[in-house]
Amino acid sequence: MFGGKKDPEETYGTLTQHIRNSDVAALESVLRSLRQPAAALAWQANGKPPLLHVAAERNDAVSIGTLLAARADVNAADPLGTTALYLAARSDGAGALETLLAAGADVNCQRGSGATALYVAAQNDSRNCLSALLLAGASVDRPKEGGFTPLLVAAMRNHSAAAAMLLDAGAVADRAYDVADRWTALMLAAHLDHADVLHALCDARASLGLTDAAGRTAQQLARDAGHEAAAALLAGKEEAMADVADAATREGLMDELRRLSPERAALQLAPAALEELRELCSDSSGGESSGVFPAAARLHGQCLLMANTLLPAARAVSDLARLDAATSRQEEAVAEAQTAYDDAVTALRDAPSDGSADARAAAQRDAAREAYVEALGALRAKYAVRQARGGSDAATRARVREAIPEGGTGEGGAGTGGGGVGLSEALGVAVPVLRRAVEEVGEAHAATVAAAEALQEAMGRERMLVEQMREPLADAERACGAAVEACVAEVLGGEPEKEMEQLALLGAAVASQVRGRRLTGTTSELDHNLGVQHIGFDNRPVNVNVFTGRRQRSVASRAGIALGL
Question: Is 250 contained in some domain?
Fold first, then answer.
């Protein structure tokens, strides 16, 4: 399997020695001599690690490239699940790690314990590998058993730079492990007095008020462990964050107050606008003799009269006129036929008595007679039709008289035809105008009606809200006035000059004690030595030492020069 009869372990040992000697040429030579190099590369008998692991632990990127070229498995793991990438990260072998990543190593591969390459890089402060793994997309919060994340182990090991890198990459600052006390990274750093890690976590906005399984905050854990500096740091951060939150709250309040600045135009309708609205409402309501509706109604009536009555009547009159013209033409034809017949009779009477001439004249007379009789028949038919049409014409005239309004046909007059315009032409002008009046003006009017209803509802709601707000506005105004008076009295009250004088005396007494001997004893003894006797600098009894009480510290900070410490 390994070429010749050489023992597999001996071949493994030879390859391992070449890697440790960084003899890449010899390594390549042996690999080329093997019939199945992949088997040798994967050999792990007797607890020996894969050859790729040996090169990774030495950060030997060249040997790793040679092994990968011989088809070594980039994700090969030992019985514990350890990969070459994990080993490179553990020893901060950035060159080896980047070679493995470029070959497709699984950046999130976990050991049996759940630890990833990123976890061990954070654990060992392997910052070069940590950066490379984060750039390669390693899961920043993937935990090992117990819920320990890379950030938690970095905080535990006091690797502040690694912790900052993880936080910048999006690590969850407030995630706690799953066992025992369930501490967050901030709690671990506070308990272990890791100040730099505390700064990094606080800068990343880690929550200061979270509690562990026993209900303790990070500040309490630091104080319980005797780490007063860490506790003071967290207290200062908490106070600073509170100040920032207060400033943000004040700024938000100021923004809202600026936005809520009352404007008369926004809360009251100006008299001129009200008058204009009243005029618009008056114009929209109109009267029966003005506005669009009366004119549209009259025009609609005229259009109906023309379309339903006058157009049919006009067509009937036109048909009757054509019939009369045809009858007149037929009467003329009868007269001509009669003249032709009379002439034929006269010609027959005056014709020579020879047989042929007499026969021709008789034939012409007979033909003229037939034409005359035919013309008379046609004229008789015309008269019959005209007589029938006469009754229909009378009915049409009656309908027209009935349809014409009592006051006439409206503007333009009944007989004017709209200035010589025919019925069809007049309808062609009137119908588009009527359509626009009914549809467009009607749509606008519907919107006006809806707006009027909405206005009525809105004004009713406004009246109701105005009535509802009168008393709360008055109450709020009285409350603000009282608060302003109380705050002004508190700010301007007191005797700051006397307070400063007494602080100077207290400071001098403390300085004298410090110079004279070491301060020992209880708080009561120290107060007695200083002559304080639990009397504050404002001559009022207090329950805390003048040098530890919060109020005294704030004043003392303003009078630092007077204290002389």
Answer: no
